[in-house]
Amino acid sequence: MFDLACQEPPDMTDSLSAFTARHIGPRDHDVADMLSTIGLSSLDELASAAVPDAIRSADALDIEAAPSEHVVVKELRGIADRNKVLTSMIGLGYYGTIVPPVIARNVLENPAWYTAYTPYQPEISQGRLEALLNFQTVVTDLTGLDLAGSSLLDEATAAAEAMTLMRRVSKAPAGAVLLVDEAVFPQTLGVIRTRAVPLGLPVVVADLGGVDDVDALRAAAGDQDVFGVIVQYPDGAGRLRDHRALAAAAHEHGALVTAAADLLALTLATPPGEWGADIAVGTSQRFGVPMGFGGPHAGYMSVHSGLERNLPGRLVGVSVDEVGARAYRLALQTREQHIRREKATSNICTAQVLLAVMASMYAVYHGPRGLEAIATVVHSHAIALADALRAGGVEVGDEPFFDTLTVHVPGRADAVVDAALKQGVNLWRANADTVLISVDETTDEADLAAVATAFGVNRPVVTLAAPAWDTDLQRTSEYLTHPVFNSHHSETAMLRYLRRLADRDFALDRGMIPLGSCTMKLNATTEMLAVTWPEFSNLHPFVPADQTRGSREIVEQLSAWLCEVTGYDAVSLQPNAGSQGEFAGLLAIAAYHRANGDTERNVMLIPSSAHGTNAASAVMAGMKVIVVKTDSITGNVDMDDLKAKVEDHREHLAGIMVTYPSTHGVYEATITDLCAMVHDAGGQVYVDGANLNALMGLARPGRFGADVSHLNLHKTFCIPHGGGGPGVGPVAVRAHLAPHLPNHPLDAEAGPESGVGPVSAAPFGSASILPISWAYVRLMGGAGLKRSTEIAVLNANYIAARLREHYPVLYTGNRDLVAHECILDVRGITKDTGVTVDDVAKRLIDYGFHAPTMSFPVAGTLMVEPTESEDKGELDRFCDAMIAIKGEIDQVAAGTVEAADSVLRHAPHTAESLTQEWTASYDRAAAVFPPGVDPTAKYWAPVRRIDGAFGDRNLVCSCPPPEAFES
Fold this sequence. Notes:
By secondary structure, the chain is an alpha/beta fold. The protein folds into 3 domains: about 10-85 and about 765-895, Alpha-Beta Complex (Aspartate Aminotransferase, domain 1); about 85-510 and about 930-965, Type I PLP-dependent aspartate aminotransferase-like (Major domain) (Aspartate Aminotransferase, domain 2, 3-Layer(aba) Sandwich), CATH 3.40.640; about 570-765, Type I PLP-dependent aspartate aminotransferase-like (Major domain) (Aspartate Aminotransferase, domain 2, 3-Layer(aba) Sandwich).
């Protein structure tokens, strides 16, 4: 008989929701055992001992938990019903698209893809890396350039990255300007201006349509030198212009040219790389990624050869493993900001991997002919609509177009837009006399008829037609010729391809990913459900506000909850990555000082242990970074050095950026003194919120002295990492900084009028994934969030206690406790035996684990963060693996085997290696079935250890032909 008692999870208490018991891994009896191992009697005792009294919150979080997951789904349905999903023909970089169901089900909704981490361990990320290499190939082929990155955050921020890249590379003199065409999308121009101000880069906006020589270029720039030019292609008015003369003039002048280009249009139009652009940027949104009220979407950047070492973000390259087999990895990682810190040229620390994978698979699924067919239908619909409007006496712009029409209706724009709205269609009012209409993959003849009715003209007659553009505008070069784009067009083939790639990866659905500083916790299925609901996913970000009341309610409620959790007064959800949140917070600090007349405050103090993004973001915000020492014994901020640095820079001090708990995994008892010292000197305190999972319900940064924090919703609040993106990095501030939060030129509700400008393309950033965090907070409630923190701290201390005798725990706080993560020191082992942190990380793959964070924040160490979602069995499995690996290290230390010949140095081992000639000093079973590994549940790495140096010396960053590695 069915037992109803089984419907409730065990270990329920009156104060915790049923969902909390499912989210948290250890059961009550496990908690007792783990506390005993640590030497404590209760979670309260653990919190009291670990967290300094000075910062402990006296009051509980005032957030009510939902009764059940079913209730939350019902509540979300009610909120979704407040949105009105009409036909969007607004354009401006956001278009309706059809997500192939095989991709929706097997990528977007598949935890094998969405729970994966950034592919810093490439041997267990080969599927993801191949998908990203496909993405890079799509971008390079379509843009006609040589090299593309594996995605950026969105089109607007990609354009801003192009601005700084052009300034670095151009030899134009200091004071030269960025020249931007006036028909660039308004949100893109807004983000460019936001990013340009702190860097002191002048931006000039002009009509570049007639610029055909150097004199005209200088005239457009107000007779100033130009370091870079940015054009939209096709432009914001829909015009497809020939920019050859403009590009030639810019190059003669010594400037570079960036084209913000539409990938679908490029299947028919001349690629930017063929008419002279040095850089192309844009979004891959219309390649099968829903609009989602603004995101997340994968931006892109491609460049000419020679610019690859200046390319921001991540770059996937092809290398070989130790037996010569083809293998993929992140290439040229020394370019990345988290390594370069204050010398960084960009602060981007993430990508939009999940969305880049979707876009790449859209191209794989349709192939070059399929993409061309979609583009041809889109263009034919636009032609039919233009012909119908003209036949009805309506003036339509006469320049070549792809999918967007500029329609002139003197004095009638509002009336036309209203009439279309009554037909269920959103058009874009450019001004009182002009309406823009964009068609897309989802547009059908009924939509065209509705628009025609709004204008009072006859129904369009659609006939498929190739573009009738001038020859110079028509694409003649081939694209996507690689077999991968010409082999998977049946659903069976596509399904198997996606499964084959997913099987090569290790994601959270396979086992624990114990990454310090990255918080790889459960992404519950209930939290994920609403992401694909059309009420959230099919909204254009610029539709009238009354059509998005449900999404705005999510924004409002989630913002209020985040304020309650952090103790801050206001939140902006616009930043679509943690680095963007950092940048926005620093802009708010700078604007606050300016508003107070303190225009000379530009020094930002940053501890040497800080996240690399901190220093990079400070530089991007126009600040001078001064590094504060950390104590070599405790790892805490050196308060004497801090005091000296504060005094040295008192008159110019903008503030300090500090992570709490520290990046070393310790609750520093001096945090309130640090805040007071900086405030006394007139500075502001920025607390990096990356480690908020150790504070929820126990302490509030906004109440223990901090002025601003960014929060990682893809860490603490359960939005999946998605293989390295999507992310959301809200910025939370106290009241005095609230007037300086981001705003948006196209949405008055998206921020204060006095704000610093937009930091992301969309008013509310990656709005379609906010329901994930909303559901998490609603399901957990205040008591559940507190318990999640307590268990996260318990799990980390349990691992530290079990492993301390095998690997020194580098830094601890009161009573030798850590916060939610601990650092295992391998440096002594390396010195004594030659076994490196890389050897330990790769050997963990054979044991069925993703490695902890390697060599951050201290070189030669492993930083472990188990999160609250891992149960005791998984923690013990990890500890047992680490202890067994220490036993293997001990054999090297004893001289039984040389490090170079050890099972550690040659890890990971593939199934194929068992079939080849075996010359190792250890046996096959020891290689692939070490202690604790279940042969029936074995994860097999698809490649051996990868040669990173080979990949950097022989840079290949697009799909290589099959014969490239036959030798």
